Structure formats: structure tokens, C-alpha cells
Amino acid sequence: MDHEDDTHDPDALFDDPMAEEAFEDHDEEDTLEAAPRRSAADIIASLNDENTELKNKVMNVLADMENLRRRTEREVKDARQYAVASFARDILSVSDNMTRALQAISQDARDAADETLKNLLEGVEMTDRDLQNQLSKNGVQQLLPKGEKFDPNFHQAMYEVPNPDLPNGTVVEVVQAGYKIGERVLRPAMVGIAKGGAKFAPKTDDQSKVEAGSQVDKSV
Fold first, then answer.
1. C-alpha to C-alpha distance for 211 and 75, rounded to whole angstroms
2. Cα gap 184→143, rounded to integer Å
């Protein structure tokens, strides 16, 4: 009786689990040997590149957070400063009415007034001054630019006065006081300006320093 010799059968070889595992190990070793090996210098360089990239990402995130913090602080400051703008604009009419009432009384009438009327006038003046002080405490500044150069950002020209003795564009009269809060105009000052004189001379550094100092003293 003939016995089949499966020793030389290739298919029979892969039916053996031990033989299949040996072939798999052999293939893995061939793959590892075929893969290029990285030197230590290449690995260090790659890690340094990754480290630099991560540092840049962190710095960008920190910069964005700082910009956000500054922007938020600025927005909060502006919100606080300009929150009273609408209310202050409505209050200005009260101050205007008191000013008109005081201007309606001539100096002769003041001199001839009895004690009661004088006390009334003094009370109105004190109320108007207190109102201006309260507005100033809340960042609202009155604009009385007489003698200053006309500034279209803060002034509204109502008429021109021929006057060659004054620089052209000098405010010669304030018809109605203006107001601003921060750098925003609540109401421009209504003014009359000189016409026909020389050009307005630019301010020197010394004049700017003196004016800046006087503004600081007033704010204090």
C-alpha cells in the first residue's frame, strides 16, 4: 500500500501552524532590515522642530489671550465712560434753560433787584455750577472755545465776523456752549469766527506743554 509523502507538498507546509508562524517572523525581519534607520542626529533635529512648532503655537495663543484681555478692558472702560452719554445729553437742556434765565436779566436789573431777587439769582447760579461739576465728575466736559482756533470736530460755525486783527478762524463768540464726553461730542459749541486776519499760528512745544499742564490742574 502506497503512502502519500506530504513532506514535499508546498500546500501542506502552510497547513502547519508552526511553519506559518516561522514564515511570518521571517517576513517581519526582512521588513525591518529593509526600512531605513534614522540616525540620532535626525531624531534630535526632528524633536527640536516639533518643540519649536509647539512653542510658536503656545506664544500665538498667549498673544491672542493678551489681545483679548486688552480689548475687553477697553470695551468695559468705554461702556462705563459712555453709559451716561444719553442721560447727559438730556440734562444739557436743563443747564441751557438756567443759562438763558440768567442772561435774560441785565446788569442794571441785577443792581436794582431787591434782596429776594438777588437770592434767587444766586441760587440759580449755584445750581448751574453744581450741575456743571456733576457733569464734569462723570466725564462730561463743557466746551467754551472763545479765543481758540475753530475746530470743526468740536465747533459749529454760525457766522463770520470780519476782523483783520485776529488770526483767521479764531472763535470770537460762543453762542451756545458745547459738550463732550471722552473724545465724543455730545453737542458742538455754536460759535462765531473771525475772518480776514492772518493764518492761525501753529502752537509751539512750550505752549502745548503749558496748556497740557493747565488742563491737568483743572482736571484735578
1. 29
2. 12
CA distances for 73 relative to 76, 80, 83, 135, 180, angstroms: 5, 11, 15, 24, 22
Closest CA to 173 of 186, 152, 158: 158
Residues of the chain with pLDDT under 70: 1-36, 200-220
List domains and CATH numbers for the chain.
Answer: 141-215 (2.30.22.10)
Q: Does the reported pTM lie above 0.70? A: no
Output the nine-digit C-alpha cell for 55: 512653542
Contact 157, 150 (CB under 8 A): yes
Q: Which of 106, 179, 165 is nearest to 136 (CA)?
A: 179
Model pLDDT, residue 26: 52
